[in-house]
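Me: Here is a favour to ask of a fellow structure person. Could you put it straight underneath, so I can go through it closely?

Assistant:
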Amino acid sequence: MPSALQHRPWPSWADSLSLGCAVLAIASFGHSRQVQDVTITGMDYAFGVPATIRPGLTALTFENQGTVWHEMYLVRLKPGVSLDSMQRVPAGPQRRALIEGGGILLAGPGERSIDRLLVDLKPGQTYTLICNFRNEPDKPPHLELGMFTHFQAK
């Protein structure tokens, strides 16, 4: 197992909770709404994502084209919070106070995420993608190496 996974920013029960929420969300929407599929690309150390994605029910897939493990941590900025101000705050309670929601997909080098993340993108909202992984415990998080971006739901 790569060392990056040994420094996961979430508790072990969060994996089961995320999967359960996604299954519950899919079941609650049934077949009455169209789901758009969007693939987010990760590289060493950046994301490839359109500047805007159509609002509505969206199934995100994460494809890692990099040479190390990456995560795609999706959050929505609270109203009035800028991407710059969120970046300057360290991971933890201070950053969580600036964001709403969230979901995580993981992928090894050259792989796609096993699962997809189901999100109901709200019109006019800003969403941020972050990778908090580190290549080694004493190395900076990928966020500090430039692996973050944002998009608008329009």
